Amino acid sequence: MARVGALSLVVIACFTARAEAAVEIMKEADVKPGMKGYGLSVFKGGAIERFDVEVIGTLKNVMPKHSIILVRCAGQGLERTGIIAGMSGSPVYIDGKLIGAIAYGWGFSKDPVGGVTPIEAMLEEGRRPLHGELARRGNKRKDAKTQSEEISVIAPSRLGDFALNQAAVDGAIRPLATPVVMAGFDPRVVERLRPELANFGMMPAQGAGGGPMAAPGGAALDLTPGAAIGVQLMRGDLNMTGVGTVTHRDGNRVLAFGHPMFGLGEQYMPITTAWVHHVFAGMAQSFKMASPIDVVGSLTGDRQPCIVGEVGRKVDTIPVTVNIARADGSYKRIYKVQVLKHRLFFPVLARAAVVSAMLAAEGDLAEATYSMGVTIKMKGREPLKLKTDIFSPIGLFDPRAMFFGTGVLAVSALLNNPFAPVEIESVTHDISIAFKRDFAMIESVYLAEWEVVEGGTVDLYVVLRPIRGEPFTIKVPARIPDGLGGRDAVIEVAAGRETRPDQAPPHTLDDFIRNIREEYDARTIVATVGRNAWGVKMRGAKLEHLPRTFLEVLTPTQTVVGGGMVYNDVEVTKKSIGRLVSGRAHLRVRVVERKD
């Protein structure tokens, strides 16, 4: 029977795919109150089932040039559950003609009343021409040397800045929530993501899908009207997929949801078939518990009337591997995921995956030192290797430990660089955890004498305080630059991880990557002394020790033609102390002239 059922699904899917392009539609203007029809959706497994619909009326121009048809639904338990999150996109037919997709509802509503997005708006969105993949990859600079050096990095805005603010509000019509299956994630990470996802009208739901999935019984699933569809942000040992319903299919083009997912326009994300396990009835919102099955294509559009997908289209993801081991080699875990290659989403998704993996492997409430090495492989370039260390007295329960990740930020910077596209081939995190105190704070700094000689070297006495330990002092040598005689000088000591190397703004992609690569070790103290000298940073290089008169000829301000920047040069000394360090301190000293 299972084979017969699966074969029937295939036959129906093939017939439907051929017939859909010719489906009749009923225009919004022809829909009248009292008309009755039916809708299609999946309530269990992969079976597409009917529910009854009666038109209440039409809300004109609820949004700019966007009306909504109000309908009352019945059958399939909707009288008890109300309109269900995950029904978004369920096609509605009257007299055999498609009028649109169930897409809107009201928070805490007791009635199974929903809003239908008219099919005309969805079809028009499906015909919108694609402008290419520039939104995902960024535009290549044709001649980097002619560009202003004022731009050193195009940093992505926070994902929340683009939120549609669709959280449930009593009395306000809103898109039906999109259940987001989050499989393999630690519940604490889910809770941290919940507010941000809620602003996009999404409902995080624990579910299956943290590895290869198959429909029970080997059922064949296809993206036909009424079928469940997933938009996948991450897959592998962890999975994150938004689930809705297909409204219409014309060849390889699929229209679904009846409302936006993120509302970010032309976007490329994997789309999947999906299997519905159960419908949960809730007070605020009932929802479908579902799992993604097969990746079958890509999202291409995400705007007000609907999402648009293309079956058979491939979309890039970035393989992310998280290797977690104890420093003594007694324990090891490996997690592998494919994360959406997207300049806004990758940092949020990758960090959530890494933190979930760390919590699952070593989420102890204990003093711990985390050492994270990251290797970013890029097509045609040497791998970029970075390292981050952090100490936490309460393990990953410390928010600083929960969200550190130089590698994630580096990939984000590479994807958003202003010079040329970078093909990220993979990101590997090698995390070593030691349950010990390996940390000290910089408490103060002093000199044995308050006067120092220009051109000489002095010993800075840096006082460090370890966690629950007695303060101790180390000596850090610092050179006093020439030309400071008769002046006061400010000397600063700071933790390496809290100090950025003095870099010139990048002029090429090579400069950009070099600046990312350069960093001070977290177990290093960096001492800086300002020189009585000036220079110019421009075109990826630093011109040092330039006469002030020369700078005044160039410009009376702090910028130079060509994007350069005038800067006050500093003398830098580094000293490794063999343990993690944090904080900074400074002192002012009198510099006397050198007597030759």
Q: Tell the overall outline.
A: elongated
Number of strands: 32
| Derived structural class | alpha+beta
Rg over CA atoms, rounded to whole Å, is: 30 Å
- Helices, by number, come to 10
For the record, give the distance between the C-alpha atoms at the N and C termini, rounded to a whole number.
101 Å
- Give unreliable regions as ranges: 1-20, 134-157, 555-567
What proportion of the residues is helical, as a percent range?
A: 10-25%
Give a quick account of the main beta sheet: strands, pairing sense, barrel closure: 7 strands, mixed
Mean pLDDT: 82
Percent strand? 35-45%
What brief labels describe this structure?
32 strands; single chain; seven-stranded mixed β-sheet; 596 residues
Helices and strands in order:
Elements: H1 2-19, E1 36-44, E2 47-63, E3 66-74, H2 78-81, E4 84-85, E5 91-94, E6 97-106, E7 113-118, H3 119-126, H4 134-137, E8 173-175, E9 178-183, H5 187-198, E10 202-206, E11 228-236, E12 239-250, E13 253-256, E14 270-280, E15 286-303, E16 306-311, E17 317-326, E18 332-340, H6 345-362, E19 368-378, E20 384-392, H7 399-402, H8 406-415, E21 424-434, E22 439-446, E23 451-453, E24 457-466, E25 472-479, E26 487-495, H9 509-517, E27 524-538, E28 541-546, H10 548-554, E29 559-560, E30 564-576, E31 580-582, E32 584-592
Parallel strand pairs: 4-15, 9-10, 17-21, 22-31, 23-32
Antiparallel strand pairs: 1-2, 1-5, 2-3, 3-7, 5-6, 6-7, 6-8, 9-12, 11-12, 11-14, 11-18, 12-13, 13-16, 14-15, 15-16, 17-18, 19-20, 19-21, 22-24, 24-25, 26-27, 26-32, 27-28, 27-30, 29-30
Helix pairs in contact: 6-8
